[in-house]
Write a structure and sequence with these properties.
Layout: H1 6-12, H2 18-25, E1 43-57, E2 67-78, E3 85-87, H3 98-104, E4 108-113, E5 124-130, H4 141-148, E6 153-158, H5 188-223, E7 232-242, H6 244-255, E8 259-265, H7 273-276, E9 282-286, H8 300-319, E10 325-330, H9 354-373, E11 391-396, E12 405-406
Parallel strand pairs: 1-4, 5-6, 5-7, 7-8, 8-9, 9-10
Antiparallel strand pairs: 1-2, 2-6, 3-4, 10-11, 11-12
Helix pairs in contact: 4-9, 5-6, 5-8
């Protein structure tokens, strides 16, 4: 069974997340090729980088000589046919769960390891991806490699300390000995609030700093001799992520002027953006699971209170933001469907097929970045789409009244 940091369960959806439901339900099954083939015009390559931020001490260790290390996996448009297809886990022994690593060892992606960057045409827009709390930089390969096939260079940041990797790429063990999560008291509502407060500070600022440091190093990749020299369009940078990583993306849009647009894949918001909003366009995608029904009656008042808190944060952020805003809710999905997890666990017949969920997530994410990074309009962003009947769509465009387009009810 995949090892999950217990607090991740609190973050991903109230007291217990869809992710926790996966873990309890069954062992994962990993097909040799779990992913739908990317449909863009480019072949896809993948590489990794490991960078040390000498300006920041490692917050998860007490050793003052430790500095923060940031590992990224990048997916990019590539020259076809010159390298072998990459495994899903490039180094299974890095993964904290030995059982999960063994189960996934034979799974492959569509990306070629170390392939040359596609050489012709204009430089490619850059996307910063942040994984979900307690997971890994490769846990949403369904979307990172797919977006690369459409001409984006996607840098996925690994946030050590609140992740699933136990080693750095060079084999060095990551051994945290501080910043422990709050102890549980048995009061679910109070424990959730205490965990959220801890994640809001100190954990969330660490993630934002990791992503901003990665952007600094990406600027060097674009400038210095190497595979990405001259191939990265630093005027067209977007951020996106799943869960805690989606919240990180929205915060980056407020904090870092280099980030022009953000997409949040089913992430509860954290950080100062909840109070001040953002001037950048944002898309939030939501699952449709009614988590309250999963709890005994005695626990439901706490769940309702926590749900109201997250809805209020969304509403305040939206109201205080001056950029365009989109809400997309996908019927038949739960929290794990915004990652690769939906491909590996059994599904009830009430739930949307995992690959169909990914098709919808990818379509809206691409349409958004095409609109706000490349200036290419999309029918998906103009209103309800007959091709996506599973979607409830709302938008607030600066040139239109707030929440002017609605289909099949209202998004959170």
């Amino acid at each position: 069974m995949w090892k999950v940091v217990k607090i991740a369960v609190v973050v991903l959806a109230l007291l217990v997340v869809g992710l926790g439901l996966y873990i309890r339900r069954a062992m994962p099954k990993f097909p040799e090729q779990p992913f739908a083939a990317p449909s863009g015009p480019y072949a896809v390559g993948t590489r990794e980088y490991s960078w040390t931020d000498s300006s920041r001490a490692e917050p998860y260790t007490k050793n003052p000589s430790d500095y923060r290390r940031v590992v990224v996996q990048v997916w990019y448009p590539a020259v076809a046919g010159e390298a072998d297809t990459a495994r899903y886990l490039l180094r299974p022994d890095e993964f904290a769960s030995k059982t999960g690593a063994r189960a996934a060892a034979k799974s492959k992606t569509w990306a070629a390891l170390g392939a040359s960057v596609a050489p012709s045409g204009p430089a490619f827009p850059v996307l910063i991806y942040n994984h979900g709390g307690g997971w890994t930089r490769w846990s949403s390969t369904f979307t990172t490699q797919w977006l690369a096939s459409y001409g984006y260079v996607v840098f996925s940041v690994e946030h050590f300390g609140f992740n699933q990797s136990a080693k750095y790429p060079d084999g060095t063990a990551f051994e945290p000995d501080t910043l422990a999560m709050p102890k549980e008291t048995g009061d679910g509502g109070a424990d959730a609030k205490a965990s959220w407060a801890f994640l809001d500070d100190p954990v969330f600022p660490i993630w934002v700093a990791d992503a901003r440091f990665a952007l600094d190093r990406i600027e060097g990749l674009a400038r210095d001799p190497g595979p990405f020299q001259g191939r990265l369009d630093l005027e067209r940078i977007g951020a996106f992520g799943w869960s805690f990583g989606g919240a990180t993306a929205v915060q980056l849009s407020a904090d870092d002027p280099r980030v022009k647009a953000a997409v949040d894949h089913d992430g509860q918001l954290f950080g100062s953006v909840r109070e001040r909003g953002t001037a950048r366009p944002v898309m939030q995608l939501h699952n449709s699971t009614d988590y309250e029904k999963l709890y005994p009656e005695k626990d439901r008042p706490a769940i309702r209170e926590l749900t109201a808190m997250t809805a209020a944060w969304d509403s305040t952020t939206r109201e205080r933001s001056s950029g365009d805003w989109y809400n997309v809710t996908i019927a038949g999905t739960d929290h794990g469907d915004f990652s690769d997890l939906g491909l590996f666990y059994p599904r009830s017949k009430e739930r949307l097929d995992a690959k169909r969920a990914h098709e919808i997530i990818n379509a809206y994410t691409l349409a958004f970045f095409e609109r706000y990074l490349r200036g290419t309009p999309s029918e998906l962003l103009s209103g309800p789409s007959p091709a996506m009947p599973e979607v409830t769509f709302r938008s607030r465009i600066r040139s239109q009244p707030a929440d002017s387009v609605t289909a099949k009810g209202s998004a959170p």
